[in-house]
Every structure is written in structure tokens, then in C-alpha cells.
Amino acid sequence: MPIETLLTDPPIWLMDPLLEAPDASALLAILDAELAWQRPALRLFGREHPIPRQQVWMGAPEASYRYSGREFLPDPWHPAVAELRERTITALATTGLEARFNSVLLNRYATGEERMGWHSDDEPELGHAPLIAALSLGAERPLRFRWKNRQAPAFNVWLPHGSLLVMGHGTQERLQHALLPRCLPGLRISLTFRRVLSDHHGR
Ligand SMILES: O=C(O)CCC(=O)C(=O)O
Question: 158 lies in a domain?
Fold first, then answer.
């Protein structure tokens, strides 16, 4: 599988393709049809705003997750997602990276208007310097990165159908990322695999 190094410090790689197009298309259709997609609302300045995408949090029972001030309990593994987790872990192992993902945030963007704002995946439950792998299915869109200390210009990483973006240790500490709205048609689903540490409860 071809691996492109996009950044070395911190390390960011793109494995493309991880999945061949027919497999990726079949998975897109299965996940679109079979998952219990949610559109939770976030409270901002006293008003409820539905998030501009849909999502499912999935994983092992102990992998509850706090995101934008809310606690999410994971849905149990869908068999297709459990298999993707194994494929992702195996692909990372071929590059010498040991991943022990126990959960995944699936994001569904119905059109190019749907989006995710600037953030880092740096919640305490992910521990120090987490490794995060993002599998993309469907419409190709750019993920935009910017340095927290503005040491260099922001840049785009286009995420092809069936590709795996690997954000290595240190990425979340030093960069933010966002999926900005674009005049692009087409459904996109991303799966961002993570490891939630079980000893974060009781903080
Ligand atoms: O959809 C994407 O590729 C971005 C997802 C993301 O930033 C996240 O899940 O934290």
C-alpha cells in the first residue's frame, strides 16, 4: 500500500488506498444505511445549535468520550466497523506503529456544506500525544491543518475515497484541523479511530 509522508515533525502520513474503490463504496453504502446517525445539539451562548454533520460514537463499553462538553457512550461495534478497525491496526503495524484503538468517531457529511470546525483531538481521555487514524469514504474533501503557534502557513490534505490519514504522536499538540465547507457535492463518511484510556473516569 503506497504511503506518503506529508509531515515528519510531527509525523502525518497518508496511506492511499487502504481500501480499493469497490470495497470502499460498498462500505460507504453499508455504514450510511445501517448506523444510528445522530445530530446532537451543542449549547453555545445559551442557544442550542444542531451540529453541522451527523455522527456515531462506537467502541468498547469502557470507551466513553467527552466532546465539546458532552459525554458520549459508545454504540457497540458494527461488524463492518470492527473489521475496518482490524485492517487499520494491521496497516499501521506494517509501518512499525502499534495502535490499540478501542473506539471510533464516525462523521457523516451529507453535502459539502456539512463540516467540522477547528479543533485538536486532545481531550484528556485520549492521553498524552495520541495516535489517530482517519479513514475516508465517499466524496473527496480537504482536511485543513493550521499550526497552533503559526510557525508555517496552513495547508490542505485531500482525503481520497478509501484512504487512511495517520496523525502521529504530537500532531494534536501542535496543530489543529478542520473540515471546512466547500461547494462540493456528495456524501462523505469518515472514521477516526482512537484509544480512550479507561482510567480517565472520575476526573
Ligand atoms: O471528517 C474528517 O475527516 C475529520 C474528522 C475529525 O476531525 C475528527 O473526527 O476529529
Answer: yes
